[in-house]
Amino acid sequence: MADQQTRSAFEGMIRVGLAAEFLGVSAETLRNWDKSGRLVPTRNPVTGYRYYERQQLERFLARAIAEREVPA
C-alpha cells in the first residue's frame, strides 16, 4: 500500500535523465545544481531518486533564458 502511494505521488514527474535532456544539460549538471540549491528536485523517500515537475523545469528554463537576454 505504501509503495503504491509513493508511486502515485511521483506519477507524471520527470527523472534526472529526461529532465537533463529537456534542459539541454547533463544529468551530472542537474545533480550539481541540486547540491548547490539552484534547482532542487523532489526526492523519493524510499529510493532517493530525484524527480522534477515539468512546470518547475519550464520556469527554470524561462528564467535562465531571461537572464541571458539581459544586456550587460
TrEMBL record:
Keyword DNA-binding: yes
HTH merR-type domain ranges (all copies): 13-61
Matching Pfam families: MerR
BP-aspect Gene Ontology terms: regulation of DNA-templated transcription
UniProt signal peptide: none
Keyword entries, A-Z: DNA-binding
Superkingdom to which the source organism belongs: Bacteria
Keyword DNA-binding: yes
Molecular functions (GO terms): DNA binding
Name of the protein this chain belongs to: DNA-binding transcriptional MerR regulator
Species this protein is from: Aporhodopirellula rubra
